[in-house]
Amino acid sequence: MFGLSYWFLPLFAGLVWFGTLLGMLAYWLAAGSPHYVEMGPNQRIAYISDVGATFLKPLFIAGSATMVVVFDLAFISERWLRHKARLTPTYSKWEAFLSVCGIIFAIAGAAGLILLSIFDTKHYPKTHDAMLGLFIGGYVISAIFICAEYQRLGIHFRHHSVLRNSFWLKLAFIIVELSLAIAFGVTQYKKHYNVSAILEWIIALIYIFYVWSFIIDFLPATKTKHPDSRFPVIKKGQDPNAEMTEAAGNVSGGPVYSNGGHAEDANGYGNQSSMADSRQTPSRNF
Protein backbone atom coordinates (compact mmCIF):
# COMPACT_ATOMS: atom_id res chain seq x y z
CA MET A 1 0.00 0.00 0.00
CA PHE A 2 2.31 2.74 -1.35
CA GLY A 3 5.15 1.34 0.75
CA LEU A 4 3.18 1.89 3.98
CA SER A 5 1.64 -0.73 6.20
CA TYR A 6 -2.04 -0.80 7.11
CA TRP A 7 -1.42 0.64 10.59
CA PHE A 8 -0.88 3.98 8.84
CA LEU A 9 -4.64 4.27 8.19
CA PRO A 10 -5.76 4.74 11.82
CA LEU A 11 -2.63 6.76 12.56
CA PHE A 12 -3.38 9.19 9.73
CA ALA A 13 -7.10 9.36 10.57
CA GLY A 14 -6.35 10.23 14.19
CA LEU A 15 -3.82 12.88 13.21
CA VAL A 16 -6.29 14.50 10.82
CA TRP A 17 -8.98 14.66 13.50
CA PHE A 18 -6.51 15.98 16.07
CA GLY A 19 -5.31 18.64 13.63
CA THR A 20 -8.88 19.65 12.83
CA LEU A 21 -9.84 20.03 16.49
CA LEU A 22 -6.60 21.80 17.34
CA GLY A 23 -7.04 24.25 14.48
CA MET A 24 -10.61 25.08 15.47
CA LEU A 25 -9.78 25.47 19.16
CA ALA A 26 -6.71 27.59 18.40
CA TYR A 27 -8.75 29.86 16.14
CA TRP A 28 -11.45 30.37 18.78
CA LEU A 29 -8.88 31.17 21.48
CA ALA A 30 -6.83 33.43 19.19
CA ALA A 31 -9.99 35.35 18.26
CA GLY A 32 -10.52 36.17 21.93
CA SER A 33 -13.04 33.41 22.71
CA PRO A 34 -15.93 35.19 20.95
CA HIS A 35 -19.56 34.62 21.93
CA TYR A 36 -21.41 33.38 18.85
CA VAL A 37 -25.07 34.09 18.13
CA GLU A 38 -26.11 30.46 18.55
CA MET A 39 -24.51 30.25 22.02
CA GLY A 40 -26.55 30.59 25.20
CA PRO A 41 -26.64 33.96 26.99
CA ASN A 42 -24.44 32.74 29.85
CA GLN A 43 -22.34 30.39 27.74
CA ARG A 44 -18.65 31.24 27.73
CA ILE A 45 -17.19 28.11 26.12
CA ALA A 46 -18.07 27.37 22.50
CA TYR A 47 -19.08 23.95 21.26
CA ILE A 48 -17.06 22.41 18.47
CA SER A 49 -20.12 22.92 16.31
CA ASP A 50 -20.26 26.63 17.20
CA VAL A 51 -16.74 27.13 15.88
CA GLY A 52 -17.50 24.85 12.93
CA ALA A 53 -20.40 27.09 11.91
CA THR A 54 -18.08 30.05 11.32
CA PHE A 55 -15.85 30.62 8.29
CA LEU A 56 -13.92 27.54 9.51
CA LYS A 57 -16.78 25.39 8.26
CA PRO A 58 -14.76 24.20 5.21
CA LEU A 59 -12.01 23.01 7.59
CA PHE A 60 -14.58 21.24 9.75
CA ILE A 61 -16.14 19.48 6.75
CA ALA A 62 -12.82 18.55 5.13
CA GLY A 63 -11.26 17.33 8.37
CA SER A 64 -14.33 15.34 9.38
CA ALA A 65 -14.80 13.73 5.97
CA THR A 66 -11.13 12.83 5.56
CA MET A 67 -10.89 11.35 9.03
CA VAL A 68 -13.97 9.12 8.86
CA VAL A 69 -13.33 7.92 5.30
CA VAL A 70 -9.77 6.87 6.15
CA PHE A 71 -10.89 5.36 9.46
CA ASP A 72 -13.63 3.34 7.79
CA LEU A 73 -11.06 2.11 5.28
CA ALA A 74 -9.20 0.75 8.30
CA PHE A 75 -12.32 -1.23 9.30
CA ILE A 76 -12.63 -2.67 5.80
CA SER A 77 -8.91 -3.42 5.62
CA GLU A 78 -9.06 -5.29 8.92
CA ARG A 79 -11.83 -7.52 7.56
CA TRP A 80 -9.85 -8.15 4.37
CA LEU A 81 -6.65 -8.98 6.23
CA ARG A 82 -8.47 -11.51 8.40
CA HIS A 83 -9.97 -13.04 5.27
CA LYS A 84 -6.47 -13.37 3.78
CA ALA A 85 -5.05 -14.73 7.08
CA ARG A 86 -2.74 -11.72 7.38
CA LEU A 87 -4.39 -11.24 10.78
CA THR A 88 -5.88 -13.92 13.01
CA PRO A 89 -8.57 -15.42 10.75
CA THR A 90 -12.19 -15.94 11.65
CA TYR A 91 -13.04 -19.35 13.08
CA SER A 92 -16.78 -19.28 12.44
CA LYS A 93 -19.32 -17.14 10.60
CA TRP A 94 -20.09 -15.29 13.81
CA GLU A 95 -16.78 -13.41 13.83
CA ALA A 96 -17.30 -12.36 10.21
CA PHE A 97 -20.87 -11.30 10.99
CA LEU A 98 -19.77 -9.20 13.96
CA SER A 99 -17.02 -7.60 11.89
CA VAL A 100 -19.42 -6.67 9.09
CA CYS A 101 -21.86 -5.20 11.61
CA GLY A 102 -19.01 -3.15 13.03
CA ILE A 103 -18.22 -1.83 9.56
CA ILE A 104 -21.87 -0.97 8.84
CA PHE A 105 -22.30 1.02 12.05
CA ALA A 106 -18.92 2.70 11.51
CA ILE A 107 -20.14 3.86 8.11
CA ALA A 108 -23.34 5.14 9.75
CA GLY A 109 -21.25 7.02 12.32
CA ALA A 110 -19.09 8.43 9.53
CA ALA A 111 -22.17 9.67 7.69
CA GLY A 112 -23.33 11.30 10.92
CA LEU A 113 -20.10 13.27 11.37
CA ILE A 114 -19.96 14.40 7.75
CA LEU A 115 -23.59 15.50 7.78
CA LEU A 116 -23.36 17.31 11.12
CA SER A 117 -20.40 19.29 9.78
CA ILE A 118 -22.45 20.24 6.71
CA PHE A 119 -25.72 20.96 8.53
CA ASP A 120 -24.23 23.39 11.04
CA THR A 121 -25.81 24.21 14.36
CA LYS A 122 -26.43 27.82 13.36
CA HIS A 123 -28.73 27.15 10.39
CA TYR A 124 -29.91 23.55 10.97
CA PRO A 125 -29.90 22.99 14.77
CA LYS A 126 -32.31 20.02 14.85
CA THR A 127 -30.68 18.19 11.95
CA HIS A 128 -27.28 18.91 13.44
CA ASP A 129 -28.24 17.39 16.81
CA ALA A 130 -29.71 14.32 15.11
CA MET A 131 -26.52 13.77 13.13
CA LEU A 132 -24.46 14.19 16.30
CA GLY A 133 -26.45 11.37 17.85
CA LEU A 134 -25.90 9.25 14.74
CA PHE A 135 -22.15 9.92 14.87
CA ILE A 136 -21.72 9.01 18.54
CA GLY A 137 -24.20 6.13 18.47
CA GLY A 138 -22.83 4.67 15.25
CA TYR A 139 -19.25 4.43 16.46
CA VAL A 140 -20.15 3.26 19.98
CA ILE A 141 -22.32 0.44 18.59
CA SER A 142 -19.57 -0.35 16.09
CA ALA A 143 -17.09 -0.60 18.96
CA ILE A 144 -19.44 -3.01 20.75
CA PHE A 145 -19.51 -5.30 17.71
CA ILE A 146 -15.73 -5.08 17.37
CA CYS A 147 -15.30 -6.01 21.04
CA ALA A 148 -17.65 -8.95 20.58
CA GLU A 149 -15.65 -10.08 17.55
CA TYR A 150 -12.37 -9.87 19.44
CA GLN A 151 -13.91 -11.71 22.38
CA ARG A 152 -14.79 -14.64 20.16
CA LEU A 153 -11.40 -14.54 18.44
CA GLY A 154 -9.86 -14.57 21.90
CA ILE A 155 -11.38 -18.00 22.53
CA HIS A 156 -9.44 -19.50 19.65
CA PHE A 157 -6.32 -17.31 19.80
CA ARG A 158 -6.22 -16.77 23.55
CA HIS A 159 -2.42 -16.47 23.68
CA HIS A 160 -2.47 -13.72 21.03
CA SER A 161 -1.65 -10.59 23.06
CA VAL A 162 -2.74 -8.10 20.38
CA LEU A 163 -6.33 -9.30 20.65
CA ARG A 164 -6.26 -9.02 24.42
CA ASN A 165 -4.82 -5.52 24.47
CA SER A 166 -7.11 -4.26 21.72
CA PHE A 167 -10.17 -5.78 23.38
CA TRP A 168 -9.57 -3.96 26.66
CA LEU A 169 -8.73 -0.66 24.94
CA LYS A 170 -11.95 -0.71 22.95
CA LEU A 171 -14.00 -1.82 25.94
CA ALA A 172 -12.58 1.11 27.91
CA PHE A 173 -13.56 3.42 25.05
CA ILE A 174 -17.15 2.15 25.12
CA ILE A 175 -17.47 2.66 28.87
CA VAL A 176 -15.83 6.09 28.95
CA GLU A 177 -17.52 7.51 25.86
CA LEU A 178 -20.95 6.24 26.86
CA SER A 179 -20.56 7.79 30.31
CA LEU A 180 -19.41 11.10 28.86
CA ALA A 181 -22.14 11.08 26.20
CA ILE A 182 -24.80 10.60 28.88
CA ALA A 183 -23.28 13.40 30.96
CA PHE A 184 -23.13 15.58 27.83
CA GLY A 185 -26.81 14.99 27.10
CA VAL A 186 -27.88 15.63 30.69
CA THR A 187 -25.90 18.85 31.07
CA GLN A 188 -27.13 20.13 27.72
CA TYR A 189 -30.74 19.31 28.65
CA LYS A 190 -30.33 21.18 31.95
CA LYS A 191 -28.78 24.09 30.03
CA HIS A 192 -25.40 23.82 31.72
CA TYR A 193 -23.87 24.78 28.40
CA ASN A 194 -20.33 25.49 29.60
CA VAL A 195 -19.99 22.05 31.18
CA SER A 196 -21.67 20.48 28.17
CA ALA A 197 -19.25 22.21 25.78
CA ILE A 198 -16.24 21.01 27.76
CA LEU A 199 -17.59 17.46 27.67
CA GLU A 200 -18.04 17.68 23.90
CA TRP A 201 -14.40 18.65 23.41
CA ILE A 202 -13.30 15.83 25.73
CA ILE A 203 -15.45 13.27 23.88
CA ALA A 204 -13.97 14.37 20.56
CA LEU A 205 -10.41 14.14 21.88
CA ILE A 206 -10.91 10.70 23.45
CA TYR A 207 -12.25 9.51 20.12
CA ILE A 208 -8.74 10.07 18.72
CA PHE A 209 -7.33 7.42 21.06
CA TYR A 210 -10.04 4.98 19.96
CA VAL A 211 -8.97 5.54 16.36
CA TRP A 212 -5.32 4.99 17.31
CA SER A 213 -6.18 1.78 19.18
CA PHE A 214 -6.57 0.15 15.75
CA ILE A 215 -2.86 0.64 15.11
CA ILE A 216 -2.01 -2.35 17.29
CA ASP A 217 -4.59 -4.45 15.45
CA PHE A 218 -2.61 -4.09 12.24
CA LEU A 219 0.84 -4.76 13.70
CA PRO A 220 0.76 -8.54 13.07
CA ALA A 221 0.12 -7.85 9.37
CA THR A 222 3.60 -6.34 9.09
CA LYS A 223 5.03 -9.84 9.63
CA THR A 224 2.61 -11.85 7.48
CA LYS A 225 3.21 -10.40 4.02
CA HIS A 226 4.69 -13.65 2.75
CA PRO A 227 2.13 -16.46 2.29
CA ASP A 228 4.27 -18.87 4.32
CA SER A 229 4.18 -16.59 7.35
CA ARG A 230 0.41 -16.22 7.51
CA PHE A 231 -1.88 -17.60 10.17
CA PRO A 232 -3.22 -21.15 9.83
CA VAL A 233 -6.88 -21.14 8.80
CA ILE A 234 -9.15 -23.62 10.56
CA LYS A 235 -12.89 -23.21 10.21
CA LYS A 236 -15.34 -24.51 12.77
CA GLY A 237 -16.82 -26.98 10.31
CA GLN A 238 -13.36 -28.42 9.62
CA ASP A 239 -12.25 -28.61 13.25
CA PRO A 240 -12.60 -32.16 14.63
CA ASN A 241 -12.38 -30.73 18.15
CA ALA A 242 -14.85 -27.89 17.61
CA GLU A 243 -16.66 -28.40 20.92
CA MET A 244 -13.39 -28.41 22.83
CA THR A 245 -12.28 -25.30 20.96
CA GLU A 246 -15.47 -23.43 21.82
CA ALA A 247 -15.01 -24.35 25.49
CA ALA A 248 -11.36 -23.36 25.47
CA GLY A 249 -11.98 -20.07 27.23
CA ASN A 250 -13.41 -21.04 30.61
CA VAL A 251 -16.27 -23.02 32.12
CA SER A 252 -18.78 -20.40 30.98
CA GLY A 253 -17.55 -20.55 27.41
CA GLY A 254 -16.03 -17.05 27.46
CA PRO A 255 -12.55 -16.06 26.38
CA VAL A 256 -9.54 -16.02 28.64
CA TYR A 257 -7.08 -13.33 27.69
CA SER A 258 -3.96 -15.03 28.97
CA ASN A 259 -1.24 -17.22 27.54
CA GLY A 260 -3.39 -20.30 27.87
CA GLY A 261 -0.34 -22.31 28.83
CA HIS A 262 1.55 -21.36 25.66
CA ALA A 263 4.59 -19.15 25.47
CA GLU A 264 4.43 -16.07 23.30
CA ASP A 265 7.15 -15.14 20.91
CA ALA A 266 9.30 -12.09 21.48
CA ASN A 267 7.14 -9.70 19.48
CA GLY A 268 4.01 -10.51 21.45
CA TYR A 269 2.00 -11.72 18.46
CA GLY A 270 2.06 -15.33 19.52
CA ASN A 271 3.56 -18.40 17.92
CA GLN A 272 1.52 -19.68 15.00
CA SER A 273 2.25 -23.33 15.65
CA SER A 274 1.13 -22.81 19.22
CA MET A 275 -2.06 -21.27 17.90
CA ALA A 276 -2.76 -24.32 15.83
CA ASP A 277 -2.14 -26.56 18.83
CA SER A 278 -4.30 -24.42 21.10
CA ARG A 279 -7.33 -25.03 18.93
CA GLN A 280 -7.03 -28.72 19.65
CA THR A 281 -6.31 -28.56 23.38
CA PRO A 282 -8.82 -27.25 25.91
CA SER A 283 -7.60 -24.44 28.11
CA ARG A 284 -6.55 -25.11 31.68
CA ASN A 285 -7.50 -21.54 32.65
CA PHE A 286 -10.59 -22.03 34.77
Quick structural gist:
The protein is mostly helical and 286 residues long.
Descriptive tags:
10 helices, 63% helix, elongated, disordered C terminus, mainly alpha, 286 residues
What does this 3D model show about the protein?
- The chain has 286 residues and is mainly alpha-helical.
- It has a domain of 183 residues.
- Helix content is 63%, strand content 0%.
- Helix 1 packs antiparallel against helix 3, helix 4 packs antiparallel against helix 5 and helix 6 packs antiparallel against helix 7.
- The longest helix is centred in the middle third of the chain and has 32 residues.
- The C terminus is likely disordered.
What is the assembly state of the chains in this entry? single chain
Give the helix proportion (percent range). Answer: 55-70%
What composes the largest sheet? Answer: none
Beta strands, count: 0
Note the beta-strand portion. Answer: under 5%
**Structural class computed from helices and strand pairing:** mainly alpha
Main location: membrane
Region (Disordered): 252-286
Membrane topology: Multi-pass membrane protein
Transmembrane segments: 7-30, 59-76, 96-118, 130-147, 167-186, 198-220
Question: How do the strands and helices of this protein lay out in sequence?
Answer:
Blueprint: H1 8-30, H2 48-52, H3 57-83, H4 93-118, H5 125-156, H6 161-189, H7 193-212, H8 214-218, H9 242-246, H10 272-278
